[in-house]
Amino acid sequence: MFSKVSGPVRLADRVAAILAEEIESGRLAEGDKLPTEVELVKQLGVSRTVVREAVSRLRNAGLVEPRQGRGVFVLPRRTRPLDLEAESARTKAKVLQIVEVRSALEGEAAALAATRATPAALARMRQALDAIDAAVGSGGDGVEEDLAFHRSIAESTGNAVLVSTVGYLGEVARSGIRVTRANEARRGDFIEAVRQEHHAILAAIEAGDGEAAHTAARRHMKHAASRLQDADDGFWNETEDLDVNLGTVT
């Protein structure tokens, strides 16, 4: 059904675009079941990680719906009030735009979390921070763990709309976080600064100080933007290869 995917464009983007085109054209109609993950891996010649990310992107765009134990099915066509395509974040302007959106969203989420988080939610945030440290300590990039920390903050608010919005923006944020963390990993002082910023957010939430939590979250995003602004042109020239390599990790 599909031919193998290759080329310089980030693989998850390519796979998502291919599947979306099948749906938009009607070749995959409402109620149709997508090929299984194993079948897509074989037909497209990509890893399971790439397929999962592409399907997640289609789900967030409202095109498909996973059904437990049955597979992934095409949803009815509908007017989509918001359809942010998760483009590869390889340019400074694109990544900085993502940081601006995250700053507004996560500042409010942190403020709400400070007044609403339960002890269990606070424990999940602490575990998420420990997971970032463990991932970085073992040589990983900490991208998924970073996302999990910010997602845990949103979930602790009990605001279903906020949680859904964070989930919808997850694919866009993931690309930005990949680039920001790649930049930060080049310098030990950057890594430690990010660690301290994350812990400052959690400390304010644990203290129940909404204003301090809001400030800490916004400051974290401001410093992330500043670190990106300071990155030299050589770093931005390397980000295309970074996206491709990350897309093929199994």
Report what the structure shows.
The structure is a single chain. The chain is built from ten helices and two strands. It has a two-stranded antiparallel ribbon. The longest helix is centred in the middle third of the chain and has 25 residues. Strand 1 and strand 2 form a beta hairpin. It has 250 residues and is mainly alpha-helical. The chain is globular. 70% of the residues lie in helices and 3% in strands. The C terminus is likely disordered.
Characterize this entry briefly.
With 250 residues, this protein is mostly helical. The protein contains ten helices and two strands.
Indicate the multimeric state: single chain
Structural class: mainly alpha
Helix content: 55-70%
- Outline the low-pLDDT stretches: 240-250
Count of alpha/pi helices: 10
**Helix and strand element order:** HHHEEHHHHHHH
Cα-atom Rg, whole angstroms? 19 Å
Strand order of the largest sheet: 1-2
Biggest sheet character: 2 strands, antiparallel
Q: What is the molecular shape?
A: globular
Mean pLDDT comes to 80
Distance between the termini: 23 Å
- Tally of DSSP β-strands: 2
Strand content: under 5%
